Amino acid sequence: MTDKFEEIRPYNNNEIKPAMQRIAKHPLLDPMLSYLFPERVIREVRAEIASISTIAEFQKQIMLKSIHSILDKTSNNLTFTGLENITIDRKHLLISNHRDILLDSGIIQTILHDNDLPTSEMAVGDNLITEQFIEDIARANKMIKVVRSTNPKELYNSAFQLSSYIRYIITSGKSSVWIAQRNGRTKNGIDLTEQGLLKMFDMSSKGSFVDSFNELSIIPVSISYEFEPCDHLKTKEIYVSRRQKYVKAAGEDIVSILTGIVQEKGNIHIHFGKPLKEEDISSVAGFEKNEKFKSLAEIIDKGIITGFKLWKNNYIAYDILNKTNEFTSQYSAQDKSEFVKYYKTKISELFGDRDEIEEIMLSIYANPILNLKRIG
After folding, report:
1. Rounded CA separation 5/174 (Å)
2. How confident is the model at residue 116 (pLDDT cuts 50, 70, 90)?
3. pTM for this predicted structure
4. Is 352 left (phi over 0), alpha (psi -120 to 50) or beta?
5. Residue 304 contacts residue 284 (beta carbons within 8 Å)
6. Which domains, from first to last, does the chain contain?
7. pLDDT number for residue 153
8. Positive or negative torsion for Cα 314, 272, 207, 166
9. 248: pLDDT strictly greater than 90
10. What pLDDT digit, counting tens, does each position of 42-64 carry?
11. pLDDT, tens digit, for every residue of 95-105?
12. CA atoms in the 13 A half-sphere facing the CB of 55
C-alpha cells in the first residue's frame, strides 16, 4: 500500500510501538483503567500497554477486554444472529445503524473476535479525534479516519480518498470494514442510510454500478439496545433543534461517549444480515442516478430494519405515544410501569415543555416500530 492513505488508515504494526509508549504515559489512562479494570494495578496495566508491539495484541489484551468490561458492568445480555453470513473467503463492507458512538463498532468487533473471525477496520469521524491520545487508541484499534469539517474542495478529495481506501482494503482481501449508515448517530430512532454515503463508495469505482457495489459485498448490520444510549441527551438535542440550529458544546461528543459507556443498556442484540446479492443491485442499476442510489439505500435499510430486535420498551412507547393497545400482548402492566418510571426519571432534569419532551423521548423508542411499518 502506498502512503497516499497514510493520514486516514489505521496504524500498521511498525507504528504500534511508539503509539503504545505514548498511551502508556498519558495521565488520562488512570481514570479509564480504574473504571475498566478496577481489580488490576494500574502500574501493571501501563507496563503491559507499553510492551505491546502489534495491533492484534492491543485489540486482544486491551480493547476487547475493555468492551467486555463495559458490557459486564452495564448490560444484561448480548446476543447475536446471522454470523454465518460473514464469510471467510471474502471481505465485507458492514453497514449498520448507528446508536452509540463507541459501542456500536466495539461490540461488533468483540463478537467477531470471540467467534474466531478477523476484526474489521472501522470508519470514525475525525470530530472525535480531539488529541493525540485518542488518535493513538483509535488508529491502533483499526480506525479509519473520516474527514468531515473541511471546505467543499477538500471534502471532495477526502471523500474520494476514503472511498478509494475502503474499496482497496476490501477488494484486496486485507480486511472487512465497518461504517455507520449515516453521518452521526440516529437521534430519533429512525434508521435511514444516507444516499451520500453510497455515492461516496461509488466515487472510486472504475466499473459499472453493479460491479462497484457487488465487489464491496455489503452486509446490513442491525444494532438493538433495550435502553437507547444517551436517550435523554438525544431528547434534549431534538427539543432544541426544533427551535434553533443545534450547536454542540465543547466536549459534547466526549460526554456522549462517556454516557454511552456507563449508562445501563439492558439487553443488546446484533444481527448480521445476508450480503446484498448482485441481482439486488442490478434491480436498481437502470434507474436515474439519484433514484438508483435512493433505491439501493432502501434495500440496505430493509436489511437493517428487519434485523432490528424490538424490545418491550419499543412496544410500550408506541402504545403510550399513540394511545393504543396494539401491542399489549408484548408486555405486562409491570413492564409498562417500570418503563414509565424509567423514562420520566431520565427526562425529569430536562427544561422545556414537559409534554413535548415526553413525546420526543417516547418517539425515540417507538420509531423502530414505525420503521418496520414503513417498509411493509
Report:
1. 14
2. very high
3. 0.95
4. left
5. no
6. 77-229+265-309 (3.40.1130.10), 313-375 (no CATH)
7. 85
8. positive
9. no
10. 999 999 999 999 999 999 999 99
11. 999 999 999 99
12. 17
Q: Could you tell me if 310 and 368 are in contact, meaning their C-beta atoms sit under 8 angstroms apart?
A: yes
CA distances from 375 to 300, 301, 303, 369, 371 (A): 11, 9, 10, 10, 7
Query: Looking at the predicted structure, is the pLDDT value of residue 1 above 70?
Result: no
Contacts of 367 (CB under 8 A, 6+ apart): 188, 189, 190
The C-alpha angle with vertex 66 and arms to 44 and 113, in degrees rounded to 5, equals 115
